[in-house]
């Protein structure tokens, strides 16, 4: 497939006042935006004006760190995206939900319900939820081990897929004359019995417009890549250099093909924090001004927590200590851990400098420059085997998203890289992904070997 | 408190094409309404035009009986009500959720989120979910016993209330100058350790507009009444006669007062199925026509399941067998079981007649008559110690709700029994219920002994 035939995919990764941890302190920001539904509806409408494929919310069932630092409370994503669905028409809606701290029957139903009320725009970012802090909100003293969480995630996804297929697409007859509402032969128990779950089914909602919500994955550890290659249809990833992004892209596409899927059935979207200004110098100054609003004591405490060291062991004006734990011993967010340590070592950053880099995009790549420079960077990665699209993480919201939509999107459109209007109406259609066949229906079972 | 000073409360109990099981077969009905969000948004707007206090959806995480019989798939209620919130402004939104098959952290957060996006209109109908069928969707071979489910429900409610209070109302400082987003002293772990749950907290969302969502309860068993007297602020109940309703009302209010609450802090709303026509004869004919659309083999199978007998033991033209099990042995929906058996015995109904009665309102009272006659019945119960309001269960939707709003509500308003416009903007304000004080805050702890 030549670069010309491919279409760029853009997702807006939304987070209260923006991805920069100090964004809420800017005069323009609404510091109570995190619980204001109109703020989020406005962001989604901006992204929809920019014909983005989707918007996305990260999530974890716990508060990390100090609530003094930055907006800490979050609306539950399926509720939040449902309220946004009512204020938008086309844009896809991707909610994060944990397979470790949810139940497959309830969660499968919730995503099917969001898919119905949004007219086929639901996506699920599957996470396994790192950290003992979350576990303690669910009666568990310490988190399940990394591998065990991913094993449960895989079975969770199998159960969810079976439940979404437990009604055939044409099960509802609505035969008023004969008095038969649905064909009971096309609504089946799934009778799942596995290591982690026993679920009888069927689901208590018919098959939704997309069949299954779009499955998204964002972990880049070995376990994460394995799960993505098997189940994911879009992957969000943090990559700091073109070379790293190319290696990740090639590796994950190869793993996907090895499992009998096509390379195109999985879209890879690295995250970028665009800092846009009329000149590159102004963009860099904007970035510095934001970094100066970071209170380092909060940021250092979070860094210490991620690295599983004492904050006292991280003097602000020295580099990271040499004797950090190995990734293998980390049971939390493995790939994030490695990314941070490698970034600090590669660029010989002091703790203060590292905090500044992480404060902007928490490890994602910052592109600071003019609209053309940002578009150049996007095109470079897109055309050189590093990305199928990008996960846009504005440092400040709504202004950073508005600037991207008004200044970068037109450049991408002019270059023929990105759509000028929506051609489909479901999230799957935006990403160019097929509607999954039903594994239990007579026709579907022939066609859905890879579904 | 004299009858003149009290205000009637009205809740619209919504269910796809209506509460009559054959309603979907009518020419006017959309048989695919159960997954059509516009159908539900329209119903909510009709109820809001009638200044109803709230709308409500029942729910169970399982499909009961044969999907041929009637619309069987349901959208998950918190998702459904969030989509409705976006299409309405004032009306309260009550979702059913199970304490047996949910987790307190996730569910408390979900209701707080609905409360935020609706501007303080969320209510939670707390159910314990009867029946082994539901249990098997959650890896449990048989349902937990009735008493154990209610014990878990009580602890679940305690945990949820603590989580809703884990942020003080003024915890968010939004101090841009000082760089302090929230006061960490006002966001507390709850460190709950109980028989069923261990939850550290705090919740990951600030305290919501209503403090707590409105707590609703609908079980009328001994365990159900005990839970209601302690925690509920509104109770939905099925009562067939004025005398039974008066006895239930007096009993539940007395239990509530015994626990140190005021009688007014709990509102009791019996369910009624209004069948309205210009003359009583026409109303009765309308009712008969609907009953004739019931396919008895489906209805008999469900009745047999509720009574825990074989369908073969229920010949259509005979009365119920004499040797039915005692309520004490029923681990499912105890109060519903007793209501059905007493109705059949009191009125010496054949199985076919009983199916007709249950097909209309599943055990709730049917008022068939002119708008004035329906208003008379409502007034009689309201002014004679049987009800604080009613749970309106239209046999056919939307037409039955439209008729009630356009023809009965004006009569109730003329009589000074019901509001002509909303005076508050939250669900608690509609029901005349206080916003709960925060049990953990210095001021709140003095004021909230009963909260």
Automatic annotation (TrEMBL), chains A, B:
Keyword Transport attributed: no
Boundaries of every Luciferase-like domain copy: 32-386
Single GO MF descriptor: oxidoreductase activity
Matches recorded under InterPro entries: Diverse_substr_monoxygenases, Luciferase-like_dom, Luciferase-like_sf, NTA_MOA
Residues annotated as transmembrane: none
Signal peptide: none
Kinase among keywords: no
EC number: 1.-.-.-
Keywords: Flavoprotein, FMN, Monooxygenase, Oxidoreductase
Coiled coil residues, start to end: none
Family classification: Belongs to the NtaA/SnaA/DszA monooxygenase family.
NCBIfam families in the record: FMN_nitrolo
Protein known as: LLM class flavin-dependent oxidoreductase
Organism annotation: Arthrobacter ramosus
């Amino acid at each position: 497939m030549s670069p010309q035939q491919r279409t760029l995919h853009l997702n807006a990764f939304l987070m209260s006042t923006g991805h920069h941890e100090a964004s809420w302190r800017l005069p323009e920001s609404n510091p109570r935006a995190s619980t204001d539904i109109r703020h989020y509806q406005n962001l989604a409408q901006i992204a929809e004006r920019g014909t983005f494929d989707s918007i996305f919310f990260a999530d974890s069932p716990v508060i990390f760190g100090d609530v003094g630092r930055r907006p800490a409370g979050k609306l539950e994503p399926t509720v939040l995206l449902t309220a946004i669905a009512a204020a938008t028409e086309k844009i896809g809606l991707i909610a994060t939900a944990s397979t470790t701290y949810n139940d497959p029957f309830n969660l499968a139903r919730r995503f099917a319900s969001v898919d119905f009320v949004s007219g086929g725009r639901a996506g699920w970012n599957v996470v396994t939820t790192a950290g003992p802090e979350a576990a303690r909100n669910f009666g568990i003293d310490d988190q399940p081990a990394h591998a065990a969480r991913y094993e449960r995630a895989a079975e969770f996804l199998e159960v969810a897929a079976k439940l979404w297929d437990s009604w055939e697409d044409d099960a509802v007859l609505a035969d008023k004359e004969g008095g038969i509402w649905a064909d009971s032969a096309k609504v089946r128990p799934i009778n799942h019995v596995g290591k982690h779950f026993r679920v009888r089914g069927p689901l208590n909602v018919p098959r939704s417009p997309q069949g299954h919500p779009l499955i998204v994955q964002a972990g880049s550890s070995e376990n994460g890549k394995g799960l993505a290659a098997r189940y994911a249809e879009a992957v969000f990833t943090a990559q700091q250099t073109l070379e790293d992004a190319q290696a990740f892209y090639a590796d994950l596409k190869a793993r996907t093909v090895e499992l009998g899927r096509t390379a195109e059935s999985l879209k890879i979207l690295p995250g970028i924090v665009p800092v846009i200004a009329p000149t590159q110098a102004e963009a860099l100054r904007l970035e510095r001004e934001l970094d100066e609003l970071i209170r380092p004591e909060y940021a250092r405490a979070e860094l210490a927590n991620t690295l599983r060291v004492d904050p006292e062991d991280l003097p602000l004006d020295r580099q990271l200590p040499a004797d950090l734990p190995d990734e293998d011993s980390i049971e939390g967010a493995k790939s994030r851990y490695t990314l941070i340590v490698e970034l600090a070592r590669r660029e010989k950053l002091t703790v203060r400098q590292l905090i500044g880099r992480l404060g902007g995009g928490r490890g994602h790549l910052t592109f600071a420059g003019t609209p053309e420079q940002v578009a150049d960077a996007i095109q470079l990665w897109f055309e050189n085997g590093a990305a199928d699209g990008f996960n846009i993480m504005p440092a400040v919201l709504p202004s950073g998203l508005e600037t991207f939509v008004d200044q970068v999107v037109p450049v991408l459109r002019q270059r023929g890289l990105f759509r000028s209007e929506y051609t489909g109406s479901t999230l799957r259609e935006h990403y160019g992904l097929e509607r999954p066949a039903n594994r239990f229906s007579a026709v579907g079972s022939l066609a859905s070997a890879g579904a």
